[in-house]
Amino acid sequence: MRESRLWALHLICGAGLLVLLSLHMGVMHYASILALLGWVREPVLSFSSVAERGRGAAGAVTYVLLLGFALYHGLYGLRGILGEIWSTPKAVRFINAGVVIFGLAVLVYGVTVAAQAARL
Amino acid sequence: MATQVKVPTQEAVPPRLSMRLGLRGWVYAGRYPAERYLYILHRLSGLGLILYLPLHVWVTGRRLQGPEVWQQTMAVLSRPVFVAGEMLILAAFVFHAFNGFRLLFGHLGCALGKPAHPVYPYPVALHRQRSMTVALMVLASAFLAFGVWNLLTK
Amino acid sequence: MAKLTGDTESGVLTLRVARYNPEQDEAARPQEWKVKILPGMTVLDALFAIKEEQDGSLAFRCSCRMGVCGSCGMFINGKPRLACNTQVSELGSVVEVAPLPNHDAIKDLVPDLSLTFSRHRAVLPYLMRRDTAEMESPTREYHQTPEELARYVQFTYCLKCSLCLAACPTAATKEQFLGPQALGQVYRYVADSRDEGLAERAGVVDASHGVFGCHLAGACSEACPKGVDPALAIQLLKRSLFSGPPHRSAAQVVPAFPEGHQTPEAAVRPKAPPPSV
Prior knowledge:
The complex is a heterotrimer. By secondary structure, chain A is an all-alpha fold. Chain A has five helices and no strands.
């Protein structure tokens, strides 16, 4: 695939992360604002809150999208950084393969967790 | 009479001294302005976040094993060393997000102004988004301060 | 104006030069000289003063002495600069000079710029037209408005002095990276309304060692002595790879004049009198 396509996807995922990750961080780290507004009653990290957020298809899809965006954006960046240190064709092939395998492994694990958590 | 042409022999090229900076060239921004320093921080924070992500996925996956395991995990994570780590990750995220917003525009050639006939003192396009950069960094600091406060009072 | 400090007030400048003699040295070795400051003295003038009065073996490259040829790029007090374009009064009493970073030094302050030039050639730095017959043997010129000229003229001022490459953090580790100079020149041609070569150049620069090796640190534009602003050119080039060049259609050749047409000048100009002898 041409580099421009991969790079565009990196930017799109970055933009997606700005929205989804801000939402995620808003819930996790800025809960006192949400509590002031009366949107959150229980502590965000109690088991019931955690289970509640991941329940249902909408929760699972949001988590999987967030994970997909973060993995692609982060691993594309990591590939770029490593490729600037080791840039021989052999090293580049090794880095590309490593990043893809690692990304897929984490994604598969994340999807499994999200699917099971949706039924909790 | 045939003239003898002297063919110059190929002499060995004397050794060159490589001045390539290597990793020092990434982390030493010397006398360059703010954007060059933001480049270093963006790389460092990005590296931190991508290394943290798989750990985070693994830790949050432990909720599948029921409330007891989850409570234990949360108890471990409330130790000061993990709270400090969480603050670092929060700082990395807040900076990376706000600076990333700026870069998103920059990489697409937006908010950089238009090329023109160069007239001394020569303008630098990145300086045209300086006010946006400053505003974003102020916002990032405010969000970070509030996030840290929220973490400490949790 | 920068304030004169330390010894510059007493009129003496200390120059600390990183020297390298390929026949003797394995690494750079520092050497110091003191030079009497003259009004308007540049770093290049100071180097000449050393070469003429103190050490004739000091090697550096220069030609025009006025910031036009781009030969005397050096690393001066922590920044790549043209020695002829840098007043010693800007720098304080001690001036440290080293060969350009991210390049090979041939001897003392002489950098090897051959990689810069070969990268420049690799990005097809000339106007390209689909009509190859007209391109190879042009019959007339192309139309271009002042507005169309303004879109790229800034980037034509590149001297190929390689200061931008010396400043670039990507070039610090990745030798294959085309670098700000070559990538900036790609946009110089892509943005030229007379050019139709974006697709062919995209084949060269659409790569991680091409335009996507730039992460907008902006150091190249700070180092550029001519206001070319390679960082701006590279970001606009990224945009062009997705949305095409900034002009909608390539400039057309100026239409041929009808037969018997006289230019206004020729019509006004009085005819020369017939020879009298």
